[in-house]
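## retry 2 of 3
previous attempt timed out at serialization; input unchanged, resubmitting
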Amino acid sequence: MFARLAILLYALVSYGVFTVSFLYAPGFVGNYVVPKSIDVGRVSNVTEATLVNLLLLGLFAIQHSVMARPAFKRWIVKFIPAACQRSTYVLLSSLILLLLFWQWRPIPAPVWQTSGIAAWLLTGVHWLGWLIAFASTHMIDHFDLFGLRQGFSVLKAAEMPNHSFKTPLLYKIVRHPIMLGFLLAFWATPVMTSGHLLFALANTAYILIALQFEERDLIAEFGETYRQYRRRVPMLVPRLFTRRRTGDGPSSRAVGAPQ
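## retry succeeded, writing output
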């Protein structure tokens, strides 16, 4: 029982750190409320700022992608309980994200600036992006995605939750609505600085590359079911007009969550 409680406590702590990083993220990207943001903080020379920022972004990308691969998951559970695998991933991702927020170097040179209705529209899209990202985690299984369900399952001596293949709500429109939400939040801003542009470009490149690996893993796991889902539903950009393809029947099970 002590070991089970320790696993649950670990999951709760990991989720708490994630919550702090996620709540800070909109303020960081949008320059709201928080004391240190993407355009607010100690200004370095452009070369230093660019190198430091790219190193921080690269560290997050490498950790996020490597720990999401099935081979790494099989390896790490040799050293930690399987119920802690997701919580460990969440904890390290969140800590690196907090490090990025802390050590980010603003590059305030303006790229574009809008005002009036255009500024309000961009701000609205920015917040819509965060809403889409957060809501999409609940459309699948938010607590499983961030490790809490595994911790409670161990405490109750229940079986670990299965990852079923489902396409709820926004997952019927795009395969990766969480990533779509992040892209909207990163790019929609009334004031785009050079530092913000670097952040948006680097994260967009990472998302597009990482999704290729994730899709490969999903095909390996779900086979033809996921291939049919790919043919029917676009990755990130919703189709304005849909046309039913021959042979693409409804899918009863699908998943489009980040690994």
